[in-house]
Write a structure and sequence with these properties.
Blueprint lengths: L6 H11 L4 E6 L15 H10 L3 E6 L5 H15 L4 E4 L25 H29 L2 E6 L11 H21 L4 E7 L6 H5 L12 H13 L10 E3 H8 L19
Length: 270
């Protein structure tokens, strides 16, 4: 589980932990280390919470902009467990403008956007997803099963998403389709996952700008991944875009409050 110190990545780790999974979580923010954002959360903290909800959390400090760190992290998982059932690529870059003082709302047109934002999204996002997947694929191919999930966004199909972000997410989706072509004969599935509006730490800090009435918790996204991982016929989804809200209806799971986001359902009770 990459990029899991906080946000969607942490929520996915917890969703897998709920099902008793051993979850190796990676991130740059360590207990006692220098802050990487002004937001709370560390890779060790996420691992502890995974264990608390019923799984086994293992923290690996890793900066996925460094290919060698990525390869070492994947090799450690394979060495310690002998297999790799699910890889979730969530790490991303280019969000620094949310806390570095950049008045990004003044950017009107792609020509006003710093070039390094493109580089950050493709290096810490698209490239990191590719390198981690390439490192994990041999283990999955050898065992004849596995699931790779790339966290993406419907920005991939929106013309108003901003050029760097929209192109990077479209590249992520296309990468999944091509990976799925290579992996299908080996019984390994690859999908792009679109969460809805997720109540991450960043979103909650700016809650006045969002309509959260039909939003989802980070852990709901985790339950979507857990449902896919538990599906013996998950290969039918390979190469596709799947949405967390649609998976909630298909696999009949709910959010922490009993609701199914994306439907405006009333709280669900057994």
């Amino acid at each position: 589980m990459t990029g899991a110190s906080r946000g969607v990545g942490k929520g996915i780790a917890l969703g897998l932990g709920e099902q008793g999974a051993t979850v190796f979580v990676t991130g740059r923010t360590e207990v006692g280390g220098p802050p990487t954002t002004p937001l709370d959360g560390t890779v060790q903290g996420t691992a502890e919470e995974v264990t608390a909800v019923g799984g086994r959390g293992v923290a690996i400090a890793c900066d996925h902009r460094d290919d060698e760190q990525t390869k070492r992290a994947v090799a450690r998982v394979a060495a310690e467990t002998g297999r790799l059932d699910v890889l979730v690529n969530n790490v991303w870059g280019g969000y620094e403008y949310f806390w570095d003082g950049t008045e990004f709302w003044l950017e009107q047109g792609f020509w006003t956007v710093p070039i390094d934002r493109w580089d950050a999204m493709f290096q810490a996002g698209v490239r990191a997803h590719y390198v981690t997947s390439a490192a994990a694929a041999p283990t999955m191919v050898a065992q004849g099963s596995g699931l790779i999930v790339n966290v993406s966004s419907d920005a991939a199909g929106k013309d108003d998403a901003g050029v760097p972000y929209g192109v990077a997410k479209a590249a992520t989706d296309r990468m999944v389709a091509c990976m799925a072509h290579d992996l299908r004969p080996h019984g390994v599935a690859a999908v792009s996952l679109y969460p809805g509006l997720v109540r991450t730490e960043s979103v909650l800090r700016a809650a006045e700008y969002f309509d959260l009435s039909d939003s989802e918790s980070p852990q709901f996204v985790g339950r979507a991944v857990a449902a896919l991982a538990a599906d013996p016929d998950v290969i039918r989804h390979t190469g596709q875009v799947v949405r967390s809200a649609d998976l909630g209806r298909q696999y009949a799971f709910t959010d922490l409050d009993g609701r199914r986001p994306g439907t405006n359902d009333k709280p669900f009770r057994l």
